[in-house]
Amino acid sequence: MDVKMKSRGIGLNFFVLSFFVFSSILPLSFSAANQPRSFKKPDHHFGSSAVFPVQGNVYPLGHYTVSLNMGYPPKLFDLDIDSGSDLTWVQCDAPCKGCTKPNDQLYKPKNNLVRCVDQLCAEVQLTTDHHCATPDDQCDYEVEYADNGSSLGVLVQDYVPLQFTNGSVVRPRIAFGCGYDQKFSGSTSPPSTAGVLGLGSGSASILSQLHSLGLIRNVVGHCLSGRGGGFLFFGDDLIPSSGIVWTPMLPDSSEKYYSAGPAELFFNGKPTAVKGLELIFDSGSSYTYFNSQAYQAIVDLVSNDLKGKQLKRAIEDPSLPVCWKGAKSFKSLSDVTNYFKPLSLSFTKKKNVKMQLPPEAYLIVTKYGNVCLGILDGTEVGLENLNIIGDISLQDKMVIYDNEKQQIGWVSTNCDRLPKS
């Protein structure tokens, strides 16, 4: 969903609202290049995982990224990880609008455009009446996001070399977008990343393509550190054998993001009036968003609990809508967490399934030395009644999206330590 603040303004790049097919813009006559031999399917078949170090933080950067080798010869691209969308795209070395990277950091197609008649092209269309003027038409795409940001480009297929935890190396050909017309919302600078790594469950995602090639199980997970960094993995090899809390995914084949619920909000271990929440787990959102009613209830609960304590509203802090200041500037969350009570989400479809949200999972300390609420009003910014669990609430947890068993799991862990691979 890519819900961003600060570095990107408020960007609600959650589920893809629409795909459109445009007339051919890029020529098909890209120069050919020597290509490596096609990979052979490994003997382990579904027995391993690919692990990627993650960079970034919730504040002040506002996003988490991975560096992924793509193309031949392979080149590293830093991509914003986004479990709220499925199409991966990189900035394209073509006549370009809204591209922020220098030419040597752009992806250059080499006679490898996906044709319009390809089944994968049909998979990324909004309607079922996908039509190609001629069989050799290229597969154009446009991803439009809820904040009016977008990426326009062409679908390509290229090598994405991967090393698995069992030591094997494969070079599958994966389809992804080569974007040459990006639009970004708000008045802030465009993001510094080269594109988006779509981790959603749609057929166009890298995860789904790797699974269809028989390389991994259809499982993806991430572990985002509250101190910055962490790791991302494809496959099920790293899932702990015990300790994980699982809840079913909501069955909704029309969307490609991960949702669960209904859930009830607890404050300091006690139930609240906020019930029936359907929640989208979104690694592309910096903060957590609730609908207006739930959001206002949380603000009231937290504010009322702070009465009589040494905190006052810091209305002059522009970082987030609701901030507080103390007698002196705060340097870290450890200075303020004792003022705040924990939240939790109880998933009512399964007994005793709760996601704990300690103060560290919903607060930030700003550069001004104040503490701010990292839970925002989603209705106010165009999410209507959707509720998003963003990075701030996913930190210091291994979060697993198991598309085969249709369940989402999490367990508190040390995300600073990269698994051995």
Brief sketch in words of this structure:
This protein is mainly β. The protein is 7% helix and 33% strand. It has a 13-stranded mixed sheet, with helices on one face. Strands 16, 17, 18, 22, 23 and 27 form a 6-stranded mixed sheet that branches. A 4-stranded antiparallel sheet has the order 20-21-25-24, with no helix packed on it.
Keywords:
421 residues, mainly beta, Cathepsin D, subunit A, domain 1, 13-stranded mixed beta sheet, six-stranded mixed beta sheet, 33% strand, signal, repeat, Aspartic proteinase Asp1, Aspartic_peptidase_AS
Q: What this model shows, in words?
A:
The structure is a single chain. The chain is mainly beta and 421 residues long. It folds into 2 domains: 50-234, Acid Proteases (Cathepsin D, subunit A, domain 1), CATH 2.40.70.10; 245-412, Cathepsin D, subunit A, domain 1. It is 7% helix and 33% strand. The protein contains 4 helices and 29 strands. The radius of gyration is 22 Å and the shape is globular. It starts with a strand and ends in a 9-residue tail after the last strand. The model is unreliable at 5-45 (pLDDT under 50).
Task: Identify the overall geometry.
Answer: globular
User: Numbering strands along the chain, what is their spatial order in the largest sheet?
Assistant: 7-8-11-6-12-5-4-3-14-13-28-29-15
Low-confidence stretches: 5-45
What is the number of independent domains? Answer: 2
Q: What order do the helices and strands come in, and which of them pair?
A:
Elements: E1 3-4, E2 11-12, E3 50-57, E4 63-70, E5 75-82, E6 89-91, H1 119-123, E7 140-144, E8 150-159, E9 162-163, E10 169-170, E11 173-183, E12 195-198, H2 206-212, E13 219-224, E14 230-234, E15 245-248, E16 258-267, E17 270-271, E18 277-281, E19 288-290, H3 292-306, E20 312-313, E21 323-325, E22 343-347, E23 354-357, E24 363-365, E25 371-373, E26 375-377, E27 387-389, H4 391-394, E28 397-402, E29 407-412
Parallel strand pairs: 5-12, 6-11, 18-27, 19-26
Antiparallel strand pairs: 1-2, 3-4, 3-14, 4-5, 6-12, 7-8, 8-11, 9-10, 13-14, 13-28, 15-29, 16-17, 16-18, 16-22, 20-21, 21-25, 22-23, 24-25, 28-29
